[in-house]
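User: Look at the shape:
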Amino acid sequence: MLCNAIQAQYEGGSGRQEALSSTNVLQLNDGASAVTTSLAFSAGPAGMIEISQNLNTLTLEYRTANGQRAYFETGNVALTFQTNPGSATLNGTTTQTPNNGVATFTGLSVSALGSGYQLLASGASSTSATSTAFTVYSVNAGGSGRQDAMADVSSGLGTLSGQVFWVGGLGAIPTDWNDPLNWFPNTVVPNQNARLALEPNNNGHNPILDQNRTVNSLNFNGANKKVELGNYALTLTADATGVNSNNYFKTNGSGKLKRLAIPNNEGFTFPVGNSAYNPISITNRTGTPDDFSVRVLDEIYEYGTFGNPNTEPRVKRTWDIDKLNPTANADNGVDFAFNWNSNEVSNPAPSNYTLFHHDANGNGWGQVVTGTRDPNFNPAANSMIWSGYKGSFSPFGIGDQNAPLPVELLYFTAECKPQGTALRWATASEVNSAYFELQRSDNMIHWTLLKTIPALGFHSSTYHYPEVLDTEPSQATRYYRLKQVDFDGKHEYFQAVAAFCPGSATAISLYPNPAAEQLHIQGAKAGDPWEILDMTGRRIRTGTIGDQPLHRISILDLPAGLYRIHVSTTSFPFVTRP
């Protein structure tokens, strides 16, 4: 008798089914035993399930050794969790008796959010089956104002109406923005028109930006996650919602959050921060729409976005703000509302809070002279509104009007000359500055005094100090630093510079150091190889020395930082600055 004929008897209710199922054995004409050998999900759970919804209908099928359905099997099938990332309960009827070898489950639900759930089905004859992984998500009712659209689940398959969800944890790199497996629907990475939402699945995988990207909007959706920008820019054409101290854009590199075309007389709150949430609201009152970009740094730094931290009374945050048309500040200018946390205020705190701005043209930090502070300002509110700003755009900070930032160092360089190493520096402003100590070291650990130079005390315009010459030759790289001392004995150190000036006309020398636009290499032979490395040892650029006595290398595209250049068999550390 053929196998399909036997199955037809079962399906037709021949009256022999009970007897046959009691032994679970049939002898087929091909010699195969009709014995239940496996259990399989013929319809498993959907990949994404909203927590308020039941699982879709699940079916489990008993099968024989040759893969045919075991119509005769009547052993119960029980469902539990194989993996349970949310420590959830599986609600509903979790045990079913099969009909013609198929067990059907309806009305099941999962009690907790999570990503990577799997179900375990256990059946007769020690058979079992594990489902594919699925995620239980939630749409936060308090967040976007678009809850109805986002919760539009089609056919129970989790197809979200117009939304793309960040799930995270499913790709080869669980935080990779560029991996479609980390998104749902997981077919493509979201494009510039996408409306994004984060799934609150408690898996801890923040989305990390991999390149400059543009999206329509982003709803944090109560996920308790940060979108990490790193060194890339994320542009929004619409809004960001569901933001708070646990849900914001983390500016942990040079990347900024950009909002396109803020209309005149309208504002946008940039939900940004680094180690903590420090949002800033910007209202455009210039008369024309404009693009704004923001990042937050966790201190006020000597050179705006890098260098030594400031030590004066201050809010320990910098809001680095760009504007597409930085000089188009007509009408009523731009209004800011800065926000910080109480533990981010220095001790002592500013006695008279005011806004400072770091001038990108080389004038350092200075008090903002356009616009006004909110007359109702209260430091206890940890917020300050500044209205009518019409100046340039770069880093902003909040300090003490009665204790301005003391010394703004514009540059400090070391350059090889025939007579020795020439050391130069300049300041943009000084307050209460008594003198500088110029110090020297061969190892960046032990420092000796080279010379003491009187300071100007108080000034607010650029001053270039006279050159100091170190005439002692060295056969290794030598380091120099400035120690600035106030009249009250307070002091600070500025970033060290390095030079290798052995005093030989044939020796290779590098200057200026630090450098902003070009490196100059002198004394190398035409054709000598050179390479620039970052501090991790990664090769940034390579080349060869030309046939001119002075070889120039452009470094305009190098971010500010510390690097090393190898020229033939000689190596120099150098610093780039904006």
User: Anything to note?
Assistant: The chain has five domains: 3-134, 138-255, 257-402, 406-503, 508-578.
